[in-house]
Amino acid sequence: GITEIPLTPPYIRGVINLRGAVVPVLDLAVRFDKPLSQVSKHTCIVIVELEQNEQQLDVGLVVDAVSEVIDIPAQAIAPPPRLGARIRTDFMTGIANLDQHFVILLDLGNILSLEELASVAQYEQAARTG
Questions:
Q1: Hey, which of 59, 92, 113, 121 would disulfide with 80, CB 3.0 to 4.6 Å?
Q2: pLDDT score, position 96
Q3: What is the H or E stretch that residue 123 is in?
Q4: pLDDT tens-digit map of 56-108
């Protein structure tokens, strides 16, 4: 299960133990100003590896479900669409059209600022030494 850490931002759900490593778990729904993700039998934590200051940081992302893991060829990826001044696309690295279905590719570096990544790393370190 997820162990909550007091006094963390709302989008940080807590930490998990992944093969002996303490991994912070973030809720992207909250980061996108949506309600806290509701846990169901399909809810998963996807582990991503992020680089910060030449150090690798493993982060868990709460997602509603995972239907499949796919490789997307580079030629299928287009730049994010321009949707107008009021719609933010800075969190996207691109959009892929796969068999008439669009897949949005997220830019985690823009979703989580460097300061936020640093704070996540601090929570992770505090949990390790804590």
A1: 92
A2: 92
A3: helix 114-129
A4: 778 899 988 898 888 898 988 998 887 766 667 778 889 998 888 888 888 88
Please state the three-class secondary structure of 1-50 as a single string.
CCECCCCCCCCEEEEEEECCEEEEEEEHHHHCCCCCCCCCCCCEEEEEEE
Beta bridge partners of 58: 49
Indicate the helix (H) or strand (E) that contains 59. Answer: strand 55-63
Do the bridges between strand 44-52 and strand 55-63 make them parallel or antiparallel, or are there none, so unpaired? antiparallel
The pTM of this model reads 0.75
Full DSSP string of 86-122: TS--TTEEEEEEETTEEEEEE-HHHHS-HHHHHHHHH
Please identify which residue in the block is written with the tokens 């910060």.
52
At a CB cut-off of 8 Å and minimum separation 6, what does 50 contact?
Answer: 56, 57, 58, 59, 108, 109, 112, 117
